[in-house]
Every structure is written in structure tokens, then in C-alpha cells.
Amino acid sequence: MYxxxxxxxxxxxxxxxxxxxxxxxxxxYIEEAKPIIRAHIVKVIRPMTCSVVLxxxxxxxENDEVSSDEETYRKKPVPPxxxxxxxxxxxxxxxxxxxTVKSGPWTPTLEQELKAYVLNSMPHEFLATIxxxxxxxxxxxxxxxxxxxADECRNLHSTEVATYDRxxxxxxxxxxxxxxxxxxADGDIHEPETATNPSTLITDKEQTSYADWSQIxxxxxxxxxxxxxxxxxxxxxxxxxxxxxxxxxQWLKDIDRCGVLNKxxxxxxxxxxxxxxxxxDFWNPVFIDFTQCELREENTTEExxxxxxxxxxxxxxxGYVMNKRLxxxxxxxxxxxxFEGNPxxxxxxxxxxxxxx
Length: 357
Known about the structure:
11 helices
């Protein structure tokens, strides 16, 4: 772990966002006719792993200085209906992603090295050699590491947007609603002394190859208020456990039917949303984080897709893991210690196509 340098991601700060595409109509301030909106950071969701995740409140973009009325507005409590989640694939402040290539903290000097490399080399050829396994990561220079991270962030973002588009019928049910595809506007991520220096300024208005690698892609999605499925044992009564896992299993089947194979399914990426309907209260599992998904293509046969589903076993990543966690939590032990078989009255059983029989 290392110290971030001048991160713009802190409570109370504002970020200007450029709307690339509206995905959901009738959302305040999100419209293609007004391509710039301002996001006020309410909460930073940590840790920053492969992306930066923020709880934000939106206001219209203004070129003038912030008025006293807006200052008062910022300090008011934010009702759930006005909160959004802003997810940015920012290589500079994505801790886990940088650690995968043994890269240290981002600095303006690194950005200058990346810019020089992109403008004076052939970045696509370098990335092609990576895909072919022809480059030893230990021999990369700092500019190449930044280029790889930039490419990885672009891929993660495009995969997630495509997956949300594929899952549009399930949005607001078991998947958050995707409101907009956005880009971080110019100058927000730089140190003050570099933000105005033409040699280091990041701008997506310049039609250069460097601008393609420097832009920060993101999405605005629905905020799901609740706790992670991984905390089920301490956050919900035991009588609800079976219904929760059964609901998660059924939603996974619906996601599969949309031709989505999620390679990052885990209890921590499922949010338990409290629902009240016709006088009944229940927990609804909502799946998040679709950066590592595979989308079924038209020419993929049923047999090929089934093999991939079995190999990934998304259902087991929830069922087997949670079955053991809940069992351990109930009896406060990692083993069954004196119990034969499963001490629960139920046990996770894989369903087709996850069964290997």
C-alpha cells in the first residue's frame, strides 16, 4: 500500500463530468443536451481497488464560481433519491490495479513519460506483444506500465458498459440502473501547478493519440442501499438466509439467460437491498461490478456456452461459499466439530448447467 498524491477523490470535492451517452431518461441533470454535469462527492467508498467508487450528488454545471446558495445546498443531508454512484476507471488512483504491474504512486512526471512514449512510439504494437505473451513485465519501463494500465482501464470500462447494456431488462431488479456513460472533464486529476502547463495538461479535446490514453472513463449508476451478501450472517436473521440464497440463485439464472458470464461473482459483489412490498419485508440480492464479464456471441453454441458456465461456476461462487460461511458463523467454528454432515436443514446443490454430472 502506498500514499496517493493529491487525489481529487475526497468528501466535499466536486468533479466535472462530460456525458458521453445517456442510458436512462428523466434523471435530474443527466441529459445529452447539457453534456457537462457537476458531481459533489458525498462519500468515498474504500478501498480503491481496480476503480474509484464514489457516492455523489449531482448539480448542473456552472462556469461561474460556486454561489452561496450552492454552498448551502451542498451541506444539506442528501436523501437517497438524490444519491448516485460514480465509478471511475482511473489508473492513477486505483491501488490494486497499479500493484498488479508493480507500479508506484502516480506522479505528473509519470504522465509526462507516458505522453512522450505515446507520441513518439507505437503503443498499439507494444500492447499487441503483451497479448501475444512476448513481453516480460519485469522489463517494462514506467511509461509502458502506465500505457498498460490505461489500456486495462479502457477495457474494464467498455466491458462493464456493454454488460449493463446486455442486462438492461434486469436493471433496477437484480442489477443497478446504468444512467450514463461519462468522462472526467479536463484538469480534475492534476496537481495545481501542472494543470495549467500546456506540456502536461490532459485534454480529450486534442485530437491526438495521447488524448485517447489519458481520458478517465466512468459510469453513473443507481445507488443500492444495503449490506454485502458476505455480511449476511451478522446483518439478517437466520430465518431469512435460505430465501436470500435462493433469490440470488434465481437472479443468477436470469443473468445467464442474458448471455453474461461474470468472472468476478462473489458475495462481496452482491448488495442486499431491503424491499417492502404489499406489507411484506424481504431482502433482494443486487449484483454489482461487471468489469470482468464475457458476453455470449451469436455464433456460440449451447454446448460451448454450457462448458464455460460450468468452468466458471458463478452459482457455486455464491452457493458453496455462503453455505460454508453461514454454517461457520452459526456454530462459530471453521469445521463441523461434532456435527455429521451439514448442520443446516438445507444445503446448497448446484443446478443445471452448473452440475458436472
